[in-house]
Write a structure and sequence with these properties.
mainly beta; Beta-galactosidase, Chain A, domain 5; nine-stranded antiparallel beta sheet; eight-stranded antiparallel beta sheet; 17 strands; about 10% helix; globular
Amino acid sequence: MIRNVLACAVVAAGMFWQSNAPGAEPDGASLNGGPQSDGPLHIEWAKNYLTIDHQRLAGPISIHYLEAYCRPGSTDREWGKTVIKHKARLVSQTDASGGRQIKLEDVLADGVVVKHTITASRDAVAFQLTAHNPTDTASEAHWAQPCIRVDKFTGTTRDDARALVPAYARQSFLMLDGKLTMLPTQPWADKARYVPGQVYCPADVNRNDVNPRPLSSLVPSSGLCGCFSKDHKQIMAIAWEPYQEVFQGVIICIHNDFRIGGLQPGETKHIRGKLYLVEANVDKLLARFRHDFPEQAPKK
């Protein structure tokens, strides 16, 4: 019944080291106040958390950026053996009329260097990443997890975070067969090394290389996923190219985790992402996503 009501609302709207179990870390602090209502989103990074805030938002977004870099073979393996430890540092933070830009650098335990450029605009945050292996040994850095905490945006709490289907999940969505689809999807997986949660693996990714939580038999048609605000008037959505998985987690979090795919000695790869914070007009969001990520547009 709840799912049907939310689905109707969608149509009406226009439609430094990590080793714990995945999704088990504390929140970062949220920002107070914010810029003028017509200005760009405010972003700030500190202590491995990226916070996105603005007075017009339903609530601030806190992202564990990054939660973990991961090896392949992760679907049924102890999480601590999957994580590649890393250290992050703030390189620069500059403000301009168009929005703040943050540059970060991650150094992985195997020597890989990942540089991040994060840029805020009025209703989106863009991510440009360069991953480089300067060593003479191949890297197993296969994918990574930006963990997006959405409790304040969705108006939910952690009281039922470890329920089979927590309240925030019923405000969340992913893309199936080119259509925005609300959670919980059917069927709903409930068995894995770690439970609960729900993982969706794209067709071009090995199903042995994703988060060790319940793996759905359903295959996402793109990486776009997100949630509706408490009043269903706003959408938070995230997409990466390339991407490894879509994941509904256990700390009121949503993931579209980006793919690296390993790095040979001397190899460099480029990855990009975008987080949207927009009015709840599904058609406009999908049109914008398909423009920004033509690689993930439905095949004709």
